[in-house]
Each structure stands twice: as structure tokens, then as C-alpha cells.
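User: two proteins, same treatment. go.

Assistant:
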Amino acid sequence: MPESHIIPWSDGTWTNAPASPSELPTGSEHLDVTAVEGSDAWRHTAYGFVHDTEHALLAPLTVGEAMEVSFRAPWDGQFDQAGVFVRIDDEHWIKTGLEYADDHLGLGAVVTAGGSDWSVGHVDEWLESEITVRVSRWADSLIVRARADDGPWRLVRVAPFDGQATAWAGPFLAAPTRTGLTVRFTRWERSAADTELH
């Protein structure tokens, strides 16, 4: 992967404040974040509701850049989720990473342009791992990859994404059904976008 640069947690801005911490550390190696019960991100499709209450810590993401976020979580609550959030506005965003649902851990992405579109596949073997999600912004798309620990990268999604729009990205979590989900984010980095799809 291209040379990367650490993004300080304090460089990010929350879309919605989590239950904790109340202030972002400036020098900590990791960031422990506890979600508010009922937090989520979804628009319309299949469920009929709009949720804009996720906790996403965002910094600018331009065409030609990539972001990587690494994290660990205690996957045991229905719809517990964490990963990377990429946002243009309320109706145009992508969340990608892991979600625990129906007793399985899923790796996937929700691509939203007015309505949300969810793709997911089981990765139960990743339950105890440190997960890294990487998003690369191209002129017309967002490329999503993920891996467990130091394992091989998996291509998760190739999604259309407006290259002319101003966008932000960074770590996110949500806990739609319970209190007490705490995710430990261990790394937030920026680098050059991947140049090849395969």
C-alpha cells in the first residue's frame, strides 16, 4: 500500500456525538468510543425509516486519496456496527465495515443515494480479529477493501461516487438495539488511493 500518514483523532468532527468520550484525545494511540443506544444510519429502502444518528468522526477525503481505519469490537449486540463512513450530505453517503446481525458477523457496505442499498457476506472467522477497512476515492467511484489482522485484502465494494462533490470520511460506529457498545479504534490513516482494482 502507498505511504500513509496518521490522522490525529482530534482532527475529526463527529456527525453525532457518542455517549463517550466527550472530548477527543490529541495524542492517544487508540480511541475508545461508546455508542448511544438507537444510533444508526439508513434511508428508506425496505425498512421505511430514515436514521441519521450514527457516530462518524470525519475529515476531508479528496479524489486520489484513501483512508484506512482499524478497530476491534465485542460483537454481540444485534446490528452492532463499525467501520468507515464516507459522507457528501444527508442523502449521499457510504458506510462500510462489520455488522453483527442474526448471530453472524457480516462484512459489507451500505451505499446511499436517496435510498440505501446493503450488500453483506458472513465473516464469522473475523470475530476476534483487529479489522482494517480501506476506502479509495477515484474520480467516479469509491473502492472498498477490508482485512482481518495482517491477512489478505478483500474487495468489498466498487460503488459510484461523485468526484465533483466535497466529501468527508473516517471511523464510525452505531448500536441500533442496545446500550454499551464500545469500539476501540486503533488507527486512522490517510494515503494515496489504490491505482488498480485487481
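Protein 2:
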Amino acid sequence: MSGTAAAHALDSYDPIDLATMLGPQEAAVRGTIRNFGVERVLPGVADWYERGELPESDLRALVKELGALGVLGMHLSGYGCAGMSAVEYGLTCLELEAVDSGLRSLVSVQGSLAMFAIWQHGSEEQKQRWLPALAAGDAIGCFGLTEPDAGSDPASMRTTARRDGSDWVLTGRKMWITNGSVADVAVVWARTDDGISGFVVPAGTPGFTAPPIKRKASLRASVTSELVLDDVRLPADAQLPEGRGLRAPLACLNEARYGILWGAMGAASACYRAALDYAGTRVQFGAPIASYQLTQAKLADMAVELAKGTLLALHLGRLKDAGRLQPAQVSLGKLTNVREALAICRSARTILGANGISFEYPVMRHANNLESVLTYEGTSEMHTLVLGQALTGHTAFRR
């Protein structure tokens, strides 16, 4: 009996044995991305975070490598995209965010926002021009929806696009745009006489600038920018022909939110592992703190919530691959997984004590990053109301 128990001992890092639930291709994707993150990004990410700077040369090199791995727009088909499954994309987000939320954000914005918008709503000419370059990492994309006064309520956006002959002229500002100041192309949403519409804006277009946002306490190893559109003149074919109405950008956001509900579990897993390792080596009162009941209670609670969130992500991924995933289910996943990931990170910090705030460990970096993840791509309040409306049939967004 003891031999059997030893042969099947619980994996402290993965008590639900996630690997047994994955197919060979899914496991291979997960392993490849984990190795890339650990070997290529993890050694430098704490320094980037501490400096609050991800140099453009390093970022572009990373994007090229991610493109070579087939990660960029990996869940899309054609145009140089890998055409992988939703679960494979989710596992990729999990492993990327186990390194840093900024790394997962880079990939999410490139693939699930900029590329998805063009792939889903663009013309064939727009797809041919941009998607192969974005998939290969030869170009970087960003997505301009959020404004200084229009976050949770994008319908109130002030950026406008007016006709001038056959051209469009865009005027306005977008805020908190990942990849903005290094992007080669921006998908920008603006109000027209016929409603909200999307436009493809190449970097370097006169009147278009993207100053970086500095002095951040979160997502410091990520490029965040403002987009300024000062009478930006675009040809008629810059408009996304199928990108009309608010449903178009919201469909893109739903793709990104799906990646987030996986990614949050990656950040939580990194903090759980750090706390588990630390508790086994930190000696107080003559014994490792892992031997004390209160520490074990914290670790057990963290393991339980991590298991629940990971299983939920996998279930939603299977639904997405089957074509049955609903937007409210994505909201449910994003709401609970980010919330519990934050709780796991905070509990891990208490186990590490003062060392928990040191960049020698990943815990505070992940916790700070998750404070942004909690509110971007829809705040907890908004996802609560999305879920509430789906459950009751009553909307509570406006009064």
C-alpha cells in the first residue's frame, strides 16, 4: 500500500493533475510556452518591472520570437495564423501570465484584439495586408477603444470620424492602450454619423501620435500609451467594412477576456508555487513554517481556489471549442478567476512576509499586475451586472 501511495503521490504544484485532462497537442503547446517563458522572459522581467520600462528593442525581439512560435493570433485561421484550439490558446495565456501579466497582455492585444478585429470585421485587402505580418511578429498591433471619459461605457466615446470627400477624418483620444507607442497599426473605434465604426490606422499617419504612459504601479513591464488623433486623414478603405456598431468591438473584448480568465490562473499559480517553496525552507521557532497549521490552511485554500479556477477555465475552453461558449460565461470566468487570483497572491505575500514585497520573488509583481487585470477588459462591477442580467433577464446598467 505504501508503494502504491508513493507511486501516486499528490503533486503539490498541481494537485488536480491537469496534465491528465489535456490531449498530446495541448500538453505540447503548454510545455513549449512554459519553456519559452521561463528561459527567455523570466530572467529579465523583474528588472523591466522595477525600471518600469520594456525597451522597444527587447519588445520587438520578443514579438518576433512569439511569432515564430505561432502564438500571435494562434486561435485564428488563415493568413499565416496557426489555427489552434481555444484550449491551446488558453493554456498559452496561462503560461505567459505565469511569467508576467504584461507578457500575456502583449499577446492578447496583438491576437485577440487587433488581429481578431481585422480577421472578423476587416476587408480581404485589410486581412492580406496586416494579418500575415502581425502573425509573424513583423508588425505590432494595438486596439483603441477606451477613452479618458469612456471606460465601462464605450457607447459614450467622443472620438469621431467624419467624411471629407471620399476620406475619413478621425479626431479624439484613447487611453490605456497596450502596445500603443510601439504599434505599427492601430484598430481605432470612433463615432460616425451612422454609429460606431472601426478603422485601421497605420502608425506614421499624419496627426496620429502615441505618447507612452509613465509612472505606473502596475503592468510596469508592459508598454501602455495614449493615442492622440488630431485630424487623422484616412482613405475610405481604412474603415472595417463589418466593424459597425458597438457589438463589433465588444466581440473583440470577449476574445481577450477569455484569455484573461486563463491568464489569471497563471499568475496565481506562480504565487502559489513561490509560497509553497518558501514555506518549506523558511524556518521559524525551530521548524519550517510549512509545518504550522495556519500556513497549511493558507496553502490549502490557495490550492483549492487555483484548482477551481483552472478547471473552470478548461471547461469554458472546451465550450468555446464546441462553439457553445456564451459571453456571460466569459464574464463569469473573468470575474471569479481574477478575483480569486488576487486573493491567492495576497495570501502568498503573507506567507513570504517581508520578502513578499521583494522583486527577488514574483508575488508582489503579480499582485500589482492583477490590480490592473481586475479592471481592464471590463471591471468586476460590469461583469457582475452582465452575469446578473443573464441570470435574471433584467438589465441594471443604466438608471
